[in-house]
UniProtKB/TrEMBL annotation:
Residues 35-64 are annotated as: NMPbind. It is found in: Mitochondrion matrix. Its main location: mitochondrion. Belongs to the adenylate kinase family. AK3 subfamily. This is GTP:AMP phosphotransferase, mitochondrial. Its EC number is 2.7.4.10. Keywords: GTP-binding, Kinase, Mitochondrion, Nucleotide-binding, Transferase.
C-alpha cells in the first residue's frame, strides 16, 4: 500500500463510492475515512445551522456551496488529527469542484499532507439512474441497500438494527438527473486540476465487483 496513502475517491452521485470505500477499509484497516455524505447527513440529522442550510440545497438537487463543504471537511481532518505527513486516509466524494480542490490543497499543503492518489469511478449514468430508483438507506448509519443487487435480508429493514429503511427525498430520477448534470459540469475542471498534479487515475465499470479490483490495484503498489 502507498505509505502514507492520502486517497480521494471521486465519481458521479450513485457511482458506488461508498461501497468501494467500505471494501478498501476492510482490506486496508490502516486507512482512516471521511465521507462528505456521512458528514452532511450527521449535520442534517443533528439539526445544526449548517445542516439546515445544506438540507435545503440537497432537497432541490443542488450542490452544497463550496465554503460550507470546505469548512466541514477541514474541521473533520483537524478533529481527527489527520493533518500530518504520516496519516493515511480516504476522502469519499469531496472535493467535487476545482475551487474546492484548490482550497483543500491550500490546507493540506500547510501540513505536508497533499493527496497522492485521486481515483475517478467511471460508471454509465443510465445505469446510475436505474440504480437510484431501487435504492434505500438506513439514515442513522448511512448503510445503503439496493433492491436489485444488494437487498436487505428482511424487506425494507436494516440488516444490523432491524430498523425501517428510508428512501431519500432526492433518490428519484428527476432530482438525481439534476445532480448528475451538475457533476458533469464540474468534473472536467476538477480532473484537469489533479491531472496537473500527476495523481489522477480513472477506473471504469458498471458494478463494484468490476471496479473494486482496479482501485485496489492502484492503492496496493
Amino acid at each position: 500500500m502507498l505509505k502514507p496513502t492520502r486517497l480521494l475517491l471521486l465519481g458521479a452521485p450513485g457511482s458506488g463510492k461508498g461501497t468501494i470505500s467500505k471494501r478498501l477499509l476492510k482490506k486496508f484497516p490502516q486507512l482512516q475515512y471521511i465521507s462528505s455524505g456521512d458528514v452532511l447527513r450527521y449535520q442534517i440529522a443533528s439539526g445544526t445551522t449548517i445542516g439546515i442550510k445544506a438540507e435545503k440545497y440537497l432537497k432541490n438537487g443542488a450542490l452544497v456551496p463550496d465554503p460550507v463543504m470546505v469548512r466541514l471537511i477541514t474541521d473533520q481532518l483537524q478533529t481527527h488529527n489527520w493533518l500530518n505527513s504520516e496519516a493515511s486516509w480516504l476522502l469519499d466524494g469531496f472535493p467535487r469542484t476545482s475551487n474546492q480542490a484548490d482550497q483543500l490543497n491550500d490546507v493540506l499543503d500547510k501540513y505536508d499532507s497533499n493527496l497522492n492518489l485521486v481515483v475517478e469511478l467511471d460508471v454509465d449514468q443510465k445505469v446510475i439512474l436505474h440504480r437510484i430508483e431501487s435504492r434505500y438507506v438506513h439514515l442513522s448509519s448511512g448503510r445503503i441497500y439496493n433492491l436489485d443487487y444488494n437487498p436487505p435480508k428482511v424487506p425494507f429493514k436494516d440488516d444490523v438494527t432491524g430498523e425501517p429503511l428510508t428512501k431519500r427525498e432526492d433518490d428519484n430520477a428527476e432530482i438525481f438527473q439534476k445532480r448528475l448534470d451538475k457533476y458533469n459540469e464540474k468534473i472536467g475542471a476538477l480532473r484537469e486540476f489533479y491531472q496537473e498534479q500527476g495523481v489522477w487515475r480513472v477506473v471504469s465499470g458498471n458494478t463494484s465487483d468490476i471496479i473494486y479490483p482496479q482501485v485496489e490495484k492502484l492503492v496496493n503498489v
